Amino acid sequence: MAITAAMVKELRESTGAGMMDCKNALTEAGGDMEKAVEVLREKGLAKAAKKAGRIAAEGLVDTFVDGNTASIVEVNSETDFVAKNDIFKNYVQEVAKQAAKTSSEDIDAFLAEESLFEAGSTVNDVLTGKISVIGENLKIRRFKKVVVENGVVASYIHMGGKIGVLVELESDVVNDAVVECGRNLAMQIAAVSPLHVDRSEVSEAYVEKERAILKEQAKNENPDKPDSIIDKMIIGRLNKQLKEICLLDQAYVKDGDLTVAKYVEQVAKEQGANIKVKAFTRFETGEGIEKKSENFAEEVARQMQG
């Protein structure tokens, strides 16, 4: 029976084993999925297979910066206990270093590439090994690599790895003050969570949708006001909303008298530089993952049982 990529992917997702291990197991099992799982268990991957179905919604975000190249990764675990474990923390830092060297564009390709830390093993092989050692389902959920040609990339980790941020600054002057500017912006992004650098990134479709919603709200609140007044109200409310979601329009958290744009201008003037916020990336651990509801006693009991 021909072994398809879809079959390999299904087995990998259900067991956490490496792609080549899955392909070999399926070949050995003649394409029988259940038998292939047994083959993987027989080869020492049983623990990882047992853990793979559990929801991994805790974990850590980490960053790695090497000159003008940087990476940010999110690695999930089942419990917050594991997220605080030094073995797990060191592993996440290794994943971040791997991401800074990768040429992969998606998570499947990243998992399939050779590990920088264990010769002859893929990134996924190492992940599977960590699942066996740590005793929980782990998942490399996402990664991003950035390279700034002219300028700096700054990072910030908030709440011990719950939130991570990378900020890319284009600048014709690179010194400690410019790096500090990038870090301050990263702290701003971690705290306030903007969606865009500036209004040029906001799509017209988004603006039109929000304008329609705000118009209905204004009419419901002020049914007797003419459309000319309603339109003026919408402009004010829309501008306020855009200020909240666009980084450069936000009030600067370290000095409420400045917007972020004015703060960047101030640093640029002081350093005799041209500074532009090119982009940012913000990862928050577990965002968008539906978590299981477990009480503290149950979580401790499960940890004790191994």
Give a description of the structure:
With 306 residues, the chain is α+β, with helices and mostly antiparallel strands. The chain has helices at residues 5-15, 19-28, 33-51, 80-83, 86-101, 107-112, 123-134, 176-192, 204-221, 227-245, 260-271, 296-305, and strands at 60-66, 69-76, 139-147, 151-158, 163-171, 275-284. It contains 12 helices and 6 strands. The strands form 2 sheets. It has a 3-stranded antiparallel β-sheet with strand order 1-2-3. It has a 3-stranded antiparallel β-sheet with strand order 4-5-6, covered by helices on one side. Strand 4 and strand 5 form a beta hairpin. The radius of gyration is 24 Å and the shape is globular.
Please give the order of strands in the largest beta sheet.
1-2-3
* Rg, Å, rounded: 24 Å
What fraction strand?
15-25%
DSSP summary, beta strand count: 6
Bulk shape: globular
Per DSSP, the total helix count is: 12
Secondary-structure blueprint:
Elements: H1 5-15, H2 19-28, H3 33-51, E1 60-66, E2 69-76, H4 80-83, H5 86-101, H6 107-112, H7 123-134, E3 139-147, E4 151-158, E5 163-171, H8 176-192, H9 204-221, H10 227-245, H11 260-271, E6 275-284, H12 296-305
Antiparallel strand pairs: 1-2, 2-3, 4-5, 5-6
Helix pairs in contact: 1-2, 1-3, 2-3, 3-7, 8-11, 9-10
